[in-house]
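If you are new to this repository, start here. Below is one unmodified record pulled from the training split, so you can see the exact layout before writing a loader.
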Amino acid sequence: MSDIVPDLRTIQIFYWTAALGSFSAAAKRLNTTQPAVSHRIAALERAFGLTLINRLPRSLSLTPKGHELMGYAERLLRLHGEMVGAITAPASRSGSLRLGVSETIVHTWLTAFIEVMGRTYPGVAIDLAVDVSPVMREALLRRDLDLAFLVGPVTTPKLVNVSLGQFATAWIASPGLVTASGPIGLAELTRHPIITFPPNTTPYAHLRDLLVQADLPPPRLYTSASLSAIIRMAIEGTGIGAMPADAVLPEIERGQLRVLDASVGLPAVGFVAAYENAPDNRLSAAAAEIARSVATEWFAMKRDHGLP
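And here is the target side for that same chain:
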């Protein structure tokens, strides 16, 4: 066995080669070349005097010693990340954060989050994408996003979930569309078209389950991935929106929309900040904690103002 001690970069390359199962994928992740990755792995195996990775025709697999080293590599990289995070000033951090955001967050506390991120990490650019939660979940798993604020929790060990609180879902309509003031039953609600999110989303699933359980004629359903479009349709009286009331507080205050007093409620929808469960994902983890703090303050402020 060689006396060479593997450096951190070599351990990082080994970790991501093993985690991704590919020299080329590791090279892409670490912004290097496939030959450089192969060379580092070969040098690591020579240093330890044994085979760590089995090279198969179309895939890679770890040997028993490779699995053992993988545990040490993850611990080492996490410890290194903790050290850097504890010692380095956030203001010195540079780069970009690919952030996916549900439109509900856009209409509530996203601006506050961006302001705090800007003060804490002035050298980090935020590359923002707004989409529905199922699309963002897949983008996280493909590593096309670093962090996403979406409906959760996301049940996979590949992602970390940080709770961002729950938004109540309500029946929302133009004041001129539904004039009744007392509790409105589901039969009366469904005489109007119902406007909500697309079929692959949690709010739609909640609405579908409620309608299936009711012995009523199926209503017309209008769906859109754009919350702004749903809000506009509700304001114009196209139908009744099934959406988070928090996302339309300005429209409610201006009298353009109102929350209906319905006898049948809709379940609240929980949101999380989700990011890859990786040992060197310090920026995403820090941004998720900032999001949690901002969301907590936003909900507290809402309660202090007597809002539901």
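Two things worth knowing about this chain: The chain has a mean pLDDT of 90. Residues 100 and 129 are 5 Å apart (CA to CA).
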